[in-house]
Amino acid sequence: MTLEKLNALSPRDAVTLFRQCCGSAAWAARMETERPFRELSELHAAALHVWNGLSARDWKEAFSHHPKIGDIKSLRTKFASTAALAEAEQSGVVRTSERVLKALADNNQLYEAKFGYIFIVCATGKSAEEMLAILQGRLDNLPDGELPVAAAEQVKITALRLDKLLGL
Q1: Confidence check: pLDDT of 81 > 90
Q2: Domains defined along the chain, listed by start
Q3: Which terminus of the chain is more solvent-facing, meaning fewer CB atoms within 10 Å of its CB: N or C?
Q4: Mean of the pLDDT values across residues 45-64?
């Protein structure tokens, strides 16, 4: 898809597409009204500006649209599907031990119990071991401090998805 095609979509279709990049309904609706975008940098700037104007509830809605790391079966499936997107990611996760996957699941449960939403991390380029270390480190955060960290990870994920949407 090109920016021109994105700009030409009906409002409904644009919102649907934006929801694939970020699960927040408010973010997607506001992004639709920010169109047209002349350049990729303008799209990314709007995405960040709109995101930063949302409420904590909107952020948590976006988080809820990600698979939960605590489900080991989903975790295996998710990692297996990355081969087409990034061979380096796939090779780093294929050798992940059941011990690491179990630790991810257990620590994600602790995270969700403490913060009230699933652990969000931009996993691109990270091994399961790296994500586990990040997760364990973030468990030490206070709730008020963790929400902006999780929100910043969502920003990274959204930016990557916008790029993928445009075939970059």
Answers
A1: no
A2: 3-63 (no CATH), 72-151 (1.10.3330.10)
A3: C
A4: 97
